[in-house]
Batch of 3 targets.
Target 1
Amino acid sequence: MIKSKKFKKFNNIKHGFFSSKGGVSSGIYKSLNCGMGSNDKIKNVAKNLKIVAKKIGVKKKIILLNQVHSNKIYFIKKMSKKKLLGDGLITNAKNLAIGILTADCVPILLFDPKTNTIGALHAGWKGAYKMIGKKMINYFKKKGSKLNNIIAVLGPCISQENYEIKNDFKVNFLKQNAENTKHFKTIKNKIYFDLRGYIFKQLKNAGIQNIEIIKKDTFNPKNNFFSARRSLRKKNNDYGRNISIIMIK
């Protein structure tokens, strides 16, 4: 589990960016697969989620989403059995752990110590393109946050050097904003996208100055994270999911 240097300063929140280690799953899901949407055994995923909850100190279930690569965000007041389709959660309630699942996409945890508000975002390229980061910041502002109080932490994700894309992908981003060209580089006729850099810039443009980046590449097996792209390259038919959590004590 990786902790944010910025969040560590606050005693009233708990958080963690979890790797693939420390769970009970086996095979391609070894070992801390937290994705109920994967084809892993449900009982193993349930055990893994309990391991994570215990590590953080969560007494209730972790609130997760059915992630759909959107910019849909929910404000949560209490536990609910309702299935939520979206990619962002925000709350100011105590003892509600909100989590995000990733396997190369960017997990973003946010905290405003003045309003005691937390947020969790799943930002793949589709959600990022739909400005999910900017939308979350606007949500914080609606809940009374001032921009200079919001802290954002970008967790482990795929690095630019391992994120090869096709030209039409690049064209769409340049149509959105010509300045997006700086998030692409071409090496030996192959184009690579800096997803983390693009999201960092989006948050900066939204007015957030207090941003931490955890520079861990999920694609690199040495870092012990699940990676959708690495699994695809290995011709696996599925992959595990990493979990990132934050909670107000």
Target 2
Amino acid sequence: MKFSDIPGKTQEKEYLIEAVEKDQIPHALLISEKTGGGGLALCLAFISYLFCTDRSTDESCGECSACQKTKKLIHPDLHFAFPVIKKDNKKREDTTSSDFLNEFRELILDTPHAGISDWLRKINAEDKAPNINTTECNRMIKTLGLKTFESEYKVQIIWQAHFLGKEGNRLLKLIEEPPENTIIILITNQIKSILNTILSRCQLLRVPVFSDDEIMNYLCQRYQMEQVQAQQLAFLSNGDMSRADELAENHNVGYSEELLNWLRACYQFGQKPSILISWVDHYSKYSKNMQRSFLEYSLYFFREYYQYLFLGTDQLRLSEEEKETVQKMSKIIDVEKLEILQEGVNQLLINIRRNANIKIATMDVSISMFHALKAKSLAKSIINY
């Protein structure tokens, strides 16, 4: 990971580069971000720059041995701690990040902007309560007490540091007075959950979310995506690059058209129930991630539509095609009907997260939406979209 691999973050990059060049690196740095804001990617680019043996004034070389090892997350002076669960036959109190290090490397190398939800899916722990435990804290203290192997510095990254909870008290002395040439970097998207005793001992770096344009350009380059579709996903991501990656994996699904198909099928249920049954069967074959992504898109679209009803199109974060759809819908769906649609989609999203039977749950919500859409004035307009 190099600074140039990360869209935007100009001020943050300059701050980190200057800290290295002026030999003013904080011994304890707390990176505060929002989910998918690029905090870990920025941290890894900084470490690559720090360890690089042939860096320029503003970038690591990417070619030296240190850069290659950092890129693969295997540099011997780079250490990780992150929230985990019990693994296999080990006791929970004995399980640490080292037991999941291979999975963590796989995730970050594939999706450098990954968030905690991505991580929990990776280790099949979506219904578990991960944490960073006492054994992990003791391991960090012991590891950082050792000499460096190859670099001038050794670096400890604590990813999702708010999962330390009260165990963070065990690290207070380490954070306040770390061994020589030791850097501790905590990364969190829940800074209010970090102990004040830790906050007071760290230098704070706030990382802003990615802009729509930054996400759009990233999607176009990484996934060879058309600009119109990349723009749609950028709007839906709302600054979260990990969410943008997830949506891009399912970009073959035309969310806008799929939503209209659903509305059409719901309305026609009274005369042609087979259309809705067919749509529900089609939707139920999507992966859970795709089902969730579609519903989240639907809620996003409805929120923008709600805004349109009061403010017009000027401030809508929608594509031109979606704006045309909004204008057509405004003639037939008022605020009251919109709220019923939103409530139905919200309920379906909850049911999916609870592992409900997807066909039954979707049909139940769709019938409720049918009742909301059955007014005679809606018939021709929806069917003719």
Target 3
Amino acid sequence: MADAATPADSLVPPRYLFRFEVDVRYAEPIWSAKEGALLDESYRLPTLADLDDERPLADIRMAWNEKGLAWWVRVAGREQLPWCRESRLEDSDGLQLWIDTRATTNVHRATRFCHRYVFLPRGGGPSAEEPVADQMLINRARENARPIRPRELQVKSKVTESAYELSCAIPAIALGGYDPAGQPRLGFTYALLDRQLGLQTFSLGTGFPYEEDPSCWAQLRLVT
């Protein structure tokens, strides 16, 4: 009898075989003007890439409340400062987020309830050392989400050559259709890009159109 396929030699990544639903906990307060996202280890998201035998690159935590969503990220083990350019958001080291406030994970083209945001630990300001937060379009979307101004988003970072921490928050006003009481599930994925360490995604990764296809995203359940 042939041995069972391992994640390294399987034609289909194990994550493709499952539909994931992950609980995200409530936090109040969710953000501090001084400290950023106030999230301890109990808010850590599971690393689904473990199923594909991929080494996690970052500790990523998430929380919610009626005012919006927040994340805290730590990337360590680096040998140089992260490469970030405000003029090249998609190519920069940092965190990209995809959020569907209607959790329609059975469609292949984004709706107006689907949002894409990017947060960088540096690359902004006159010295290119300030963190960056911005909205991005989703390719092939049936309808784009409402445009927002970058100042509607919140971002803080601490950067050294060996590691960085990134806090970011998206207020409810920047999430069309966000209604935790009436719609406590979200479609969601992220991509943590790092030119030195690689790529970490939440649900499906390389080889799948997760950047534009909501059916590639997992589902979050907002719990108290």
